[in-house]
Amino acid sequence: MSTATDVDLCSVTNVKAKEKLMYALVKAGVSYAERWEKVPLIKRKRYNGAKEVCIVIIHKAQMDLAKAVADSLEEEVKQNIVW
Asked: How far is CA 28 from CA 21, 31, 49, 60, in A?
């Protein structure tokens, strides 16, 4: 459940990449929520062909820290993150 102070950080197209991102966020002390959405056929190219994406939701005050955490991850994970 999101509130007026929550914002979407990013979409993640791969479950393993999502797990690594979530672990890094928790380790950095960033609280988060997730929401899964189905991707329409015409938008799948943008999401690397994924049928579903995980939307990562955070408090807007933690946006800078969360982006820094995501940017610090290995390239394999960052390839599965859509901003």
From this structure: 11, 9, 30, 15
Residue 1: predicted pLDDT:
60
Q: Which amino acid is at 26?
A: V
> How would DSSP label each residue in the chain?
---TTEEEEEEE--HHHHHHHHHHHHHHT--EEEEEEEPPGGGTTTTTT-SEEEEEEEEGGGHHHHHHHHHTS-HHHHTTEE-
pTM above 0.85, yes or no: yes
Q: Evaluate whether 35 touches 57 at the Cβ level (below 8 Å).
A: yes
